[in-house]
């Protein structure tokens, strides 16, 4: 289906976000500058950009984690800015799979428990076990399923975080440098799983420094001076 005819999953209209620089409250750094974005169902988007330009801030804003100073975000027909914190938590839990740059695994849960957590929180019956076992094996972490996060390397934690973000088949997957801690081969396997998980009802936004990962995406933007410049 042509992109323009597909259902819209998320729109961001004229987002503005500045942060205070250092201790001087008069010095502001503009991170998002009238940034707009439309995400269609079935779409995969890569966002490139230099370190510190605000890519993680943008993902956090889209997920309703970081408030913006001005602008509107609509997700699944709801205006995110108007939701209560509780409603935003539920929205993320049910409809967003977020792969954080620093993984954010729950230290007291095993690998398998971490991955299954979204299903448990959503009171969803686990119908994904066979597929999960296959993905754990594919990513070389099946043998680690009973370990705790602190017993894993960074790259192993990253793979757990990826499977956890996908388990509840979210409408929107937000991935912040999902292959940053992985070798080339494992990174490619992860990218395969990530891009294959986009269905005609869901979408993926991946922040990456890797041109190879970006090349897999349908749409590529670069974040420059607080705005998204389309490259593909
Ligand atoms: N909690 C915070 N408080 C103050 N400034 C912050 C905070 N988080 C990020 N920043 C600043 O906001 C800017 C954007 O940071 P962000 O993490 O969004 O960039 P990024 O493009 O994701 O970087 P990287 O590619 O290095 O991960 C940076 O200048 C950073 O120092």
Automatic annotation (TrEMBL):
GO terms for molecular function: ATP binding. Gene3D superfamilies: P-loop containing nucleotide triphosphate hydrolases (3.40.50.300). The keyword Lipid biosynthesis does not apply. PROSITE patterns: ABC_TRANSPORTER_1 (PS00211), ABC_TRANSPORTER_2 (PS50893). Keywords: ATP-binding, Nucleotide-binding, Transport. Residues 10-232 form the ABC transporter domain. Transmembrane segments: none annotated. Belongs to the ABC transporter superfamily. This is ABC transporter ATP-binding protein.
